[in-house]
Amino acid sequence: MKHCKPCGDNKKLCAFGKDKYTKDGLYHICRNCRGKEVSIRYKLNPERHKRRANEWNKANPGAGARRYKENPDKFKAKQRKRVDTLRRATPQRVDRSDHRRVINFLKGLAEKCTRIIKKQYCVDHIIPLDHKDVSGLNVPWDMQVISLVENSIKAKKFDGTYQNRFGEDRDGYT
Ligand SMILES: [Zn+2]
C-alpha cells in the first residue's frame, strides 16, 4: 500500500505509475490523480502540451511501430480483445443492416467534424463496453461523436448516469 496525497487514500502499488526518479520507482501520486493533473495542465496550456508531444514524436520516430515489432503478440491480443468485446456487446436481435447504416452515418459525421473543425473526432460508446460495473451495448443509441482528446480523457470512465457526461466541465478545450 502507498499513500496518495491528493485523494488522501492508501492504494495498492499497482494504482501508481512508474517513475525512475523516485526511491521506490513509483510516481508520487496515483494514476487517477495523475490523470487529473495532466488534464488540468493541458487545459492551462494546450499549446505547450502539443509542442512537447510533437517534440517527443520527432525525437522518437517510429516509436509506435517499434513497440509493435517488439511485442506483436501483445498488440494482437489487444485487438482480439477489442473485437471480442464488440461482439459480446452487440445484441443478437438487432437489425444488423440498420445498425451498420447508423454507425456509418456517425463515422461520416466524425470525419466531417475532423475536416471542418480540424481536430480529430471519433465515434464513442457513451456507456463503456468493458467497465467493471456496467457494460454498455454496441448499439447506435449508445454512441456519440466526440473529439479524440475528449475520448482519451473519458476512456472507460463511468459516472453512473445514462448520459455518462465525463469531461463536460472540460468543454472549450477539447
Ligand atoms: Zn490519488
Overview features:
alpha+beta, disordered C terminus, about 170 residues, 2 domains, binds zinc ion, globular, single chain, 6 strands, two-stranded antiparallel sheet, two-stranded antiparallel ribbon, 6 helices
Characterise the protein shown here.
There is one protein chain. Helix 1 crosses helix 2 and helix 3 crosses helix 4. The strands form three sheets. This protein has a two-stranded antiparallel ribbon. Strands 3-4 form a two-stranded antiparallel sheet. A two-stranded antiparallel sheet has the order 5-6. The longest helix has 22 residues. It folds into two domains: about 60 residues, no CATH class; about 110 residues, no CATH class. It is α+β, with helices and mostly antiparallel strands and about 170 residues long. The C terminus is likely disordered. The two termini are about 35 Å apart. Helices cover about 50% and strands about 15% of the residues. The structure holds zinc ion. The site of zinc ion has 8 residues, from strand 4 and helix 1. The site of zinc ion (ZN) has 8 residues, from strand 4 and helix 1.
